[in-house]
Design brief:
11 helices; mainly alpha
Length: 264
């Protein structure tokens, strides 16, 4: 059952919001910059060590350059994610019934910031590293599930966007009344669907081990990846819910002067 943002009643006293404090792009810009540096670092690392030390999974060099990276990134990413999730849960709002309209509006902007991080990280696997993985396996013989391509795309990039997706879900359900009182189907689909790409990897590796399939995107073995990725399109429905409620809140707390609205 999806929530209806416009159906939430309110009897709050209008107040004039401070527009400059509603949304700050600074943290998002810093986050995008850090993610860009991480993804660029992964790509440079692949370019430097994939063909020289990544072709034989039984070699000592592979263990040094690739298994070490795998053993560091997985606990680091999921450990950081667990800390973020615990923080969001234990600092949840326990009195949302008395929330002011301005506070709720700010939190919607906060939710948008979380999803800006989520979509930015998701786009890297949905395009750049996803395409690179197919190219790698069409070029190099597949000898293990822990290839230089998989160690980056499936065990680093996917966990990172899962961290942001689950964080967005927790932020919405612990701080915004509409999402705390009901279930938003678009929100659940947008987070859970792409997250299931990671366990789908197990089926993919099983199929390649027993069926010896070609590395082409159209093979039925790979259908799970695009189908789960397409669930991210549910973000469109989520934004309809969010924007609808934000429009109500802008009217409630007091929007910009009429002359400014005409210029917008």
């Amino acid at each position: 059952m999806s929530i209806q943002a416009s159906s939430i009643p309110s009897a709050r006293v209008p107040s004039t919001p401070k527009a400059e404090k509603m949304f700050n792009l600074g943290p998002v810009a810093i986050g995008w910059g850090l993610l860009l540096a991480i993804y660029a670092g992964f790509r440079l690392y692949q370019g430097a060590f994939s063909f020289e030390y990544g072709l034989d999974a039984t070699s000592p060099e592979f263990a040094t350059y690739w298994l070490t990276l795998f053993q560091i990134e997985v606990p680091l990413i999921f450990g950081s994610g667990l800390c973020i999730w615990l923080y969001l849960w234990f600092t949840r709002d326990r009195d949302m019934d008395n929330m002011s309209g301005e506070t709720e509006l700010k939190r919607y902007f906060g939710l948008l910031a979380w999803f800006m991080m989520y979509t930015f990280s998701f786009l890297w696997i949905a395009s750049f590293f996803g395409e690179g993985d197919a190219t790698w396996h069409q070029t190099v013989i597949r000898d293990t599930a822990l290839t230089p391509s998989h160690i980056v795309v499936f065990y680093a990039c996917v966990p990172m966007y899962i961290v942001f997706g689950v964080s967005s879900l927790l932020y919405a359900t612990t701080r915004i009344p509409a999402f705390a009182r009901g279930y938003s189907l678009p929100l659940i689909m947008a987070v859970l669907g792409p997250g299931l790409i990671l366990p789908n990897l197990g089926f993919n590796e099983w199929g390649h081990a027993f069926w010896m399939t070609e590395e082409i995107f159209s093979h039925p073995l790979h259908w799970g990846f695009p189908i789960l990725g397409w669930t991210g399109l549910a973000l469109g429905g989520l934004f309809i819910q969010v924007i609808g409620r934000m429009a109500v809140l802008f009217k409630e707390v007091g929007g910009p002067p009429a002359e400014d609205a005409d210029l917008a």
